[in-house]
Write a structure and sequence with these properties.
- The protein is of the alpha+beta class.
- 21% of the residues lie in helices and 40% in strands.
- Strands 3, 4, 5, 6, 7, 8, 9 and 10 form an eight-stranded antiparallel beta sheet that branches.
């Protein structure tokens, strides 16, 4: 059995054993973060990438909701400052309201939303950029018109249970 498959099976077993009201504790393989995510959602990008995406089940002809966590080391330009990241991220998009200061997992953060043009139409992207000692964590929720419900709840639950 290859190592990737074995790790995936172990992770699936751990996640199912930890189920609480439909949510499970996800531990990033690099041990950068943990958070509660909906049980049964697919996990993409665990192979050394600095982006993990959780994808919910589609509904009807619509796509599944997605919530992503990206990490930028503090040694990179993107990882130094949430304000710089937020301003750069909003370039070329339609800003939906101001950039608001917040606290996520006890760390300083900025929250904002943008409207993106994508191949599936307009997508509202809700963002939390969180500054930690390790670097910058960016949590994104893509809200597409055709997406199944549940993404906003998953996004807020992930943020409220996030640990570094």
């Amino acid at each position: 059995m290859n190592a990737r498959l074995a790790a995936g099976l172990i992770l699936a077993a751990l996640l199912s054993a930890c189920a609480r009201d439909g949510f499970v504790v996800y531990q990033d393989p690099a041990k950068l973060f943990s958070a509660e995510v909906p049980g049964g959602w697919r996990v993409l990008g665990e192979d050394g990438e600095r982006r993990v995406t959780f994808i919910g089940e589609p509904s009807g002809t619509g796509s599944g909701p997605t919530v992503s966590v990206m990490f930028y080391s503090s040694s990179t330009t993107q990882g130094r400052d949430p304000q710089t990241f937020a301003v750069a991220h909003r370039l070329g998009t339609q800003a939906l309201g101001p950039i608001e200061p917040a606290t996520v997992a006890g760390a300083p953060a900025l929250r904002y939303a943008v409207l993106l043009d994508s191949r599936v139409g307009k997508v509202r992207e809700t963002v939390a950029a969180i500054k930690t000692d390790k670097g910058l964590f960016v949590v994104l929720y893509d809200d597409r018109e055709d997406a199944a419900p549940g993404g906003a709840l998953a996004y807020e639950r992930l943020l409220s249970t996030l640990r570094f």
